[in-house]
Write a structure and sequence with these properties.
With 228 residues, the protein is an alpha+beta fold. The protein folds into two domains: 40 residues; 176 residues, no CATH class. Helix content is 41%, strand content 21%. Strands 1-2-3-4-9-8-5-7-6 form a nine-stranded antiparallel beta sheet, with helices on both faces. The longest helix has 38 residues. The N and C termini lie far apart (75 Å).
């Protein structure tokens, strides 16, 4: 083999190792910053690295208020698989005994009607329930019964029978309106209220601690509104 080619391969190997080491070190520094940030606010911090095909989870919670904030990352690996990144605020103290309500971004009435029909069809079989479980965090059985809810206020509402007004108080909360600004429909937060409590979920990760504070403030504001 040509000496230049050998040298190039060795150099590439060292560069690759250096980039990996840099990424690991940067990830560690970011986690330590989040740990300190959480301690400063009296919150708990826990990070679970990815393993066995499962993504990594960073969980920040407030034991006194009961909420938790999760950031989840699952990379596609080397086989070109898809990646998943999402952020979710949960307040389990607002859990319903039964039923489910969802509040998403503004969509046309025809699109809402089509989504309702797809939910009903998708949830009819075992595979459909599995898909809805994944989309709604384990609420596939009830998600199949979601129907579009008309009424005043921003966003598009879906609910199971008996839960049509469950999320009505939060439709026009200023923090939720602000959280939607500048984001396309797919990136805007989706609010749900069901057996798992209040959930606010959005695609992607929060960029920094300022974004994290705003997302926590959003969760607190909606929780307070629902508490009356």
């Amino acid at each position: 083999m040509d000496l230049f080619v050998i040298f190039a391969l060795i150099l590439a190997s060292f560069l690759g190792t250096g980039l990996i080491a840099f990424a690991v070190r940067r990830g560690h520094q970011k986690r330590e910053q989040l740990r300190a940030f959480s301690a400063k606010h009296g919150w708990t911090y826990h990070h679970t690295p990815s393993t066995g095909g499962r993504g990594s989870r960073t969980v920040i919670s407030d034991p006194s208020e009961g909420w938790e904030l999760v950031q989840y990352v699952q990379t596609g690996g080397t086989q070109g698989g898809s990646s998943r990144r999402w952020t979710q605020f949960t307040q389990p103290r607002l859990a319903l005994d039964s039923g489910l309500a969802l509040l998403g971004p503004e969509i046309p009435a025809k699109t809402a009607a089509m989504a309702e029909m797809m939910l009903a069809k998708t949830g009819g079989g075992m595979i459909g329930k599995m898909l809805l479980d994944r989309m709604t965090g384990g609420l596939g059985g009830e998600a199949a019964d979601l129907r579009a809810v008309s009424g005043d206020g921003r966003g598009t509402m879906f609910a199971t029978p008996g839960c049509e007004t469950a999320l009505a108080p939060v439709r026009d909360v200023p923090e939720l309106i602000e959280a939607r600004k500048g984001l396309n429909e797919a990136m805007q937060p989706v609010v749900s209220l069901g057996r798992e409590g209040l959930r606010i979920k959005r695609t992607g990760l929060l960029r920094d601690t300022d974004d994290m504070l705003r997302f926590v403030d959003l969760g607190r504001a909606l929780s307070q509104k629902l508490n009356g």
